[in-house]
Amino acid sequence: MRIVAIEPHGFCAGVTAALRKALSLLDRRSPRTVYCLHELVHNEIVVGDLKRRGMVFVESLDEVPVGATVLFSAHGVSPTVRTRAAERKLEVVDATCPFVEKVHRAARDFAARGLRVVVIGNPAHAEVKGITGEVSDATVLSSASTFDLDPTTPLGVVSQTTMNADEVTVLVERLRRDYEVETMAEVCNATKVRQDAVKAFAGDALLVLGSANSSNTRRLCEVANCAKVFRAGSLDEVRALDFTGVSVLGVTSGASTPESFFNEVTSCLRGKFADS
Fold first, then answer.
1. Residues 236-265: tens digit of each pLDDT
2. Mind listing the pLDDT tens digit for each residue in 37-84?
3. Residue 3 pairs with which residues in a beta bridge?
4. Which end of the chain is more exposed for a tag (fewer CB within 10 A), N or C?
5. CA distance 210 to 19
6. How far apart are CA 220 and CA 209, in angstroms?
7. 3-class DSSP state for residue 189?
């Protein structure tokens, strides 16, 4: 079996910046505890390493002691969360991805100009919760959604940054058929470039390295044109996969998957299947 490393892989710029802030805080605050609201990024290797270094992950600011230091994850938060942090006198360090911040600004601008804000994405995802929290009323749509919006009100459409780029394009075009649409709906460049590379891969199987709860990792699995698609978040998961019948295996990774893990997996696979 031939192993093909699909470029690009490793951390995107937003994840790199968020992790740099986290590590800087841990170095500066030790032995004082540093808290992080939600997972910094959706990758169990990264989160596990930060836990071992002493970072405490919480799901609510009420779990953070008054006056403590809290890191906001790369996915962004709503204004309500920022207000709550101020009420608890927390020292906030914001690791929100710059592209996500751009989406927040667009949502606020659309609402301020009287447009109905529509967010293409997963309503349960932390990023989408942060975006919808920017406006008093927003509609979240996915490919399975039916449209039931006031046709007299123009729409301001934004997107979760880790969606399937083709799906976003299709949804925007569907909305344009019946509504007046102003849009800034697009996935981030790091997401789109990886998706385009996966779609162009001509091998018979693809292995996507990343966590099950990583949106951009799942999207890579969805857009692949291969007969077989695998996902693994750990070396044990990789070893448990059945590559029987695979001649050419492409390997890629989500934007929050460490380069060290990518290299470990490709080295392991090449060692195992070098003579097959």
1. 999 999 999 999 999 999 999 999 999 999
2. 999 999 999 999 999 999 999 999 999 999 999 999 999 999 999 999
3. 249
4. C
5. 16
6. 10
7. helix
Scanning 133-214, the segments in alpha helix (DSSP H) are: 165-178, 189-200
- HSE at residue 21, side-chain half, CA atoms within 13 A, is 21
The single-letter DSSP state of residue 147 is P
62: which DSSP letter? G
| Cα–Cα dist 86/66, whole Å | 10
Separation between Cα atoms, residue 270 and residue 276, nearest integer Å = 10
Contact 150, 122 (CB under 8 A): no
Two structure tokens written together for 94: 């914001």
Secondary structure (H, E, C), 215-231: HHHHHHHHHCCCCEEEE
Active-site residue, 134 included = no
Model pLDDT, residue 143: 76
- Helix (H) / strand (E) containing 253: strand 248-253
Half-sphere exposure for 17 (CA within 13 Å, toward CB):
14
Q: Which of 7, 39, 101, 127 is catalytic?
A: 127
Average pLDDT in the chain = 95
Residue 275 in this model has a pLDDT that exceeds 60: no
Q: Are residues 256 and 214 in contact, defined by beta-carbon separation less than 8 angstroms?
A: yes
For the beta carbon of residue 181, count every other beta carbon within 10 angstroms.
18
Q: What DSSP character marks residue 29?
A: H
Question: 62: buried, middle or exposed (CB in 10 Å: 19+, 13-18, 0-12)?
Answer: exposed
